[in-house]
Amino acid sequence: MIEILIVFIKIVCALVWFLLLTLYLTWLERKESAVIQDRIGANRASIFGIRILGLFQPFADAIKMIFKEDFVPAFSRKFLHTLAPFISFFFVAITISAIPFGDSIRIGERTISLQILDFNVGLLFILAMLSLGIYGIILSGWASNNRYTLIGGLRGTAQLISYEVALGLSLIGLIMVFPSLKLSAIVHYQGELIFGFLPKWGIFLQPLGFLVFLFAALAETKRAPFDLPEAESEIIGFFAEYGGLKWGLFMMTDFMEIIVVSTLLTTLFFGGWQVPWMAADGFHWPWGGEWLLSHWLVVVFQVAAFNIKVFFFCWLQILIRWTYPRFRYDQLMDMGWKLLIPLSLVNIVGTGIVMSIL
Amino acid sequence: MIKALGYFIEIIRGIVITSRHFFVNMFFHILKVLGIKTKRKGAVTIQYPEQKKEIAARHRSLHRLMAREDGKPRCVACMLCVTVCPSECIYVEAAEDPDLEMQKYPSKFIIDIGRCCFCGFCVEACPEDAIRMDSGEIDFAGYTRDDLVYDLDKLLR
User: pLDDT exceeding 70 applies to what percent of chain A?
Assistant: First the structure.
């Protein structure tokens, strides 16, 4: 009974974290783009005249979307049209269950890992769910029964297929170095040191794999410079026939994908919740000396480290989105099939050679 | 290969430019929050309803009719502004003035701001300097089209 309760609490906490971060990423996107472009950004939403930098803006947006008309075009396939945003949303939202937020906390006799479910195939699970999310796009593009949405859906499919391969291949080198598909195990491996001072993070062992994964993951989020399925300026995109909350679900899916990609980058390449030189009982500096901390302080440090890393990657992705123009369709395909996949194969071979020498 | 390297350098340059803007602007925003006054600001935005930009001296804003010392309009209903107006938004109805020097005065002077294109030709055409566009008012939006029809009472200030 208490086990079920613990799992339930973990699910609620993770979802609240996920959805709040999603809401505030919309705020961050507006503010960050504004600061990049010497503007101020949305700052008018207020409750009783209190504005605090427009922090209520996401709630105002949400209220607006909830009360909008739930419009379904007469010419669409009604059932699939309604189903599509939920498929998109569900398959992204479920990935959070495999992400390790921290090591584990001890309450009395009980040890609770800060991860909803520690799959043996956690990494494959996340990749699979992200791939399944494309069904939402195909369905919305097709069921809207509109040429432009169909083009958007097809483009999305082509893009996702070509980048899915590179995404998977770029991680094989990582799995060779950290021999596990269990995300908690991968994070634990990254707690060790190389040469006695450098944290054994994925970025130091797999720099090429990191680059390929970063590009493929950016393409996975379907935002500029890879926003071919949406392409606001030309084809309007696969969700052209949606409005109100269903459109909101698609937008939320976009932002949730940013968070999932950030958590993946953090977990796989930047040590997840590992703080450099910190073990379960405190800091052990490489130049000698220790700084012992209590269990709870260590947990706070770990969760804070994870969050800071995730925030950094969210920030970086928004910066990238507001910097680069969109790829042309053929350039995108070229980059996927002719650059990223060969690079990831080179990475696998190189990793194999280095590992067999060492 | 060289070409690809060039692209790569440009990609890096792009992100350096945007992140430079971000960090420099954030630095000035933080200084402002901390209460340190600087000449440079984090953003070029003018927060409009609270903060207004000074209107240029030659800016053409809402029309006004000039009055004589006795409060009557200077206008002598010569119809030059009505003739010159490209949007045909001015309507003047003349009436006989008991003053022999003036002979005519406008009994009706209506400008439909909704049609006006703010070209300023009426001001140029007026021989009596009776109509000017220097009131400095720029926010005169209305809820209905009738709100934008300005008559003599509204124009003569």
Answer: 100
CB pairs under 8 A between A and B: 38
User: Residue B102 and residue B155: Cα distance in Å, rounded?
Assistant: 20
**Site from B5, B10, B18, B33 to mutate, A interface, most A CB atoms within 10 angstroms:** B18
pLDDT(A327) > 90? no
**Minimum-distance CB partner of B43 among A39, A323, A324:** A39
> Cβ contact (<8 Å) for A38 and B14?
no
CA dihedral A317, A323, A327, A331 (to 10 degrees): -90
The number of domains in chain A is 1
Cβ of B45 within 8 Å of Cβ of A319? The answer is: no
Q: What is the crossing angle of helices A134-143 and A78-93, to 10°? A: 160
Q: How far is CA A19 from the centre of its chain?
A: 13
Contact B45 A323 (CB under 8 A): no
The CA-based angle A272-A277-A278, given to 5 degrees, is 70
Paired tokens of A276: 């450099």
Please tell me the predicted confidence (pLDDT) of residue B1: 64
Q: Helix A78-93 to helix A122-132 angle, to the nearest 10 degrees?
A: 160
CA pair distance A62, A59, nearest whole angstrom = 5
**Measured between CB atoms, which of A34, A39, A319 is closest to B18?**
A319
Q: How far apart are CA A296 and CA A302, in angstroms?
A: 10
Domain that holds residue A66: 2-357
Rg of chain A in Å (alpha carbons): 22
Which residues does chain A have within 8 Å of residue B44's beta carbon, measured at their own beta carbons? 38-39
Give Cα separations from A47 to A44, A57, A307, B84, B157 (angstroms).
Answer: 10, 10, 28, 51, 39
Taking only the tens place, the pLDDT of each residue in B112-145 is 999 999 999 999 999 989 999 988 888 888 899 9
For chain B, domains (ranges, CATH) are 1-45 (no CATH), 64-156 (3.30.70.3270)
Provide the 3-class DSSP secondary structure of residue A293: coil
CB contact under 8 A, B14 and A323: yes
Across the range A38-44, mean pLDDT stands at: 88
| DSSP H or E run through A292 | strand A290-292
- Token pair for residue B42? 């984090």
CA–CA gap between residue A273 and residue A304 (Å, rounded): 8
Give yes or no for a contact between B116 and B142, defined as CB atoms under 8 angstroms apart. Answer: no
Mutate to test the interface with A, among B16, B20, B22 (most CBs of A within 10 A): B22
